[in-house]
Amino acid sequence: MKLYSAPGTCATAMHIALEWIGNPFEVEHLDFAGMKSPEYLKINASGVVPALVDGDMNLSEGMAILLYLVDQNPNANIGPAANSPDRVELHKWLVYISGTLHPYFWPYFMPMRFTTDKEGHDAVKAASQILVDKALTTINNHLEGREWMVGETKSVADAFLYPMAGWAYGFEKSTAQYKNIDRVIRKLAADPAVLRVHASQGNLPKVDLAA
Ligand SMILES: N[C@@H](CCC(=O)N[C@@H](CS)C(=O)NCC(=O)O)C(=O)O
Fold it and tell me: Could you tell me if 14 and 45 lie in one domain?
């Protein structure tokens, strides 16, 4: 099994899930040019990370990869079993993180894709921060009185939240101000599997998505 990732990106979540599972896997860290290379576009036509290659299968879309890993590894405790009540919750939060929280960051990292006005980048980035605040507030409220996003144990939903909540520590309203999210992120940051992911990404430059 091989994961295509890039330091500091959303693919960090899939890397954490693979570390939690504990089976051997390979990871290749791409830079921005690597994501757009003809070789990689054959694996993920969108030219983004993550992508997972398992035998003959190429799987893109982070949420699909996380659900695949949960279902392929029922004893790894990285997500509730199919058809359980918590599984429905897992779907809901993975969709929320993938479809709402994640895209809210895109204008911040890539304002040039959201306005043709070169003078307008700051305004686009400010609007992104307002949207991210809305989504992080929803998640922070959900986490009130809860240890983890879904059920009683950590799951791929927490792994998915990890890189994105991490991005917002540098925002005007820092992730540190969302106390429940901050608590979850700090627990994960001390998790040995997460530390291994950081070590793997460690010496590589953060991918400049604004390239
Ligand atoms: N819908 C895709 C989005 C993946 C995505 O946006 N990945 C970012 C990194 S967090 C990326 O590779 N961006 C490069 C680009 O947009 O050119 C998914 O959920 O997997």
Answer: yes
What are 154-180's pLDDT values in tens digits? 999 999 999 999 999 999 999 999 999
Domain with residue 73: its CATH number is 3.40.30.10
pTM of the model: 0.95
**Domain extent at residue 8:** 2-77+194-202
Q: How far is the CA of 83 from the centre of ligand 1 (A)?
A: 29
* CB of residue 3 inside a 6 A radius of ligand 1: no
Q: Which residue owns the Cα nearest ligand 1 atom 5?
A: 48
**CATH number where 158 lies:** 1.20.1050.10
Determine phi and psi for 10, rounding to 5 degrees.
-60, -25
- Is the Cβ atom of 10 under 6 angstroms away from ligand 1? yes
Cβ neighbours for 187, distance < 8 A, ≥ 6 positions apart: 154
* CA 145 – CA 49 distance, rounded (Å): 33
Tally of domains in the chain: 2
26 and 98: one domain? no
